[in-house]
Amino acid sequence: MSTPSQTVGPFLHIGLPWPDGVFVVPQGTPGAIWIRGVLLDGCGEPVNDGLVETWQADPSGHFDHPDDPRGAVTGFRGFGRCPTTVDGRYEVLTLLPGVLPGAAPHVNVSVFARGLLHRVVTRIYFPEFDNSSDPVFVSVVQDRRSTLVAQSTEDGYRFDIRLQGEGETVFFDV
């Protein structure tokens, strides 16, 4: 006898978000930028019960983490978590990350959503930096790299995430 299949969720909104999760830095922080986007499914429809997490270095390229080989810095959480809205939107207020040894400035992104048994992981790169020396970025087939680069907006960047289908965001096996 077989067991019927089930997808995961939608439980993400119940226990994972916290009130200041979208604020990697407090509002009013000098140099703060918004990263905003929409989480889309394979048909291009908004995913209204997803969760987008970000983790990044501070503007000097350091992490507030004991495993940072250059020494941890304190005072910059570097971590954000935003549930998607009914129209699939997410946002995080942060600072532009700095250059890392051997890597272009980027924000690491994890996505959780219904139907995913495991998170999917991608990166946000920024158009004003030379990303051509980043080994992860250049490992992606050239015609798909655009799915990793945010678009500049008036108050930050837009980065839509497409889980499947045409224009699917590149995800990494980590």
From TrEMBL:
Keyword set includes Acetylation: no
InterPro entries: Intradiol_dOase_C, Intradiol_dOase_core, Intradiol_RC_Dioxygenase, Protocat_dOase_a
Intradiol ring-cleavage dioxygenases domain residues: 32-165
Keyword Ribosomal protein: no
UniProtKB keywords: Dioxygenase, Oxidoreductase
SUPFAM superfamilies hit by this protein: Aromatic compound dioxygenase (SSF49482)
Pfam families with a match to the protein in the record: Dioxygenase_C (PF00775)
One function term, GO molecular function aspect: ferric iron binding
Xref: PANTHER family: DIOXYGENASE, PUTATIVE (AFU_ORTHOLOGUE AFUA_2G02910)-RELATED, PROTOCATECHUATE 3,4-DIOXYGENASE ALPHA CHAIN
Family (UniProt): Belongs to the intradiol ring-cleavage dioxygenase family.
Protein name: Protocatechuate 3,4-dioxygenase alpha subunit
